[in-house]
Amino acid sequence: MGPHRTTAAQRCSMKRLLVVCVLLFDIGPASAHSGDALGVWWNWDLWVVLPLALAGGLYAQSVHNLWSRAGRGRGIRRSRVLGFGAGWSLLALAVVSPLHALGEQLLTAHMIEHEILMAAAAPLLAFSRPVAALLWALPRGLSRNLVAAARSPAIAASWRAVSAPFAATLVHAAAIWLWHAPTLFEAALADPVLHRVQHASFLASALLFWWALAKLPTREYGVAAAQLFITMMHTGLLGALITLSPRVLYPIQTEHALAWGLQPLEDQQLAGLVMWVPAGLVYFGIGLRMMAVWLTRPSAPLRAPNFAPR
Q: Residue 38 pLDDT > 60, yes or no?
């Protein structure tokens, strides 16, 4: 098959996937683990819904508590509240909406779910800096104890080590490459507990990665941009390997692709392209922005040496 025929086939597959996503909301409900047509199927797993609802409720309560005392927009900037709301909504879209169920039928949808977790929800949540805000929703004694524990020498030193930009980049990269190994990836499909661990690993490592970059001052945005470009390259490499593989790497994940108008290899190719291109553009765009801020930041004024005697 020549390169032009491959490109045409991929375009045709993408069109069919769009049709599938549209039909998702018009088909009657069915089991997410069966080969039948998949309909409006929301994920009500308490291990997913309860932490999500708790985080959203605590944040809303903390904003209410602070703004009712200090005034609207004071203490927590509106932009950070909007950022947290957008990140929380994308997180819910990924793990609760019918996209999650479709992800158990199509590898492409599963990859979209993962990229929403790591490259969309996680940066919004990290850059909104919600930890200090969430403390306002807790009883004063509990919040003080948590802060004191976090400032203990052992915990503080461990956190500084793991949240250094390069260390956080390595942790995030390890989670991505480890869980996309075909054996582990497909084992997570068969075991709900392992599947939860997989998604928790993606989200936690992504939050660590973006948090490590968000806490850097402007003068160190060059370091942040370098870590983003490193992440773009290694995730792009993994996406390319998945896309260009001549054989199906995830046979269990892609076994229902025919029911959705895709060949298993086409489903895998589209999934690889999702990781390779759209996700890569997120890392590239944010990295480029941080590099521009770093290059155009005001320099510290030079001071003439003082030779006057003391």
A: no
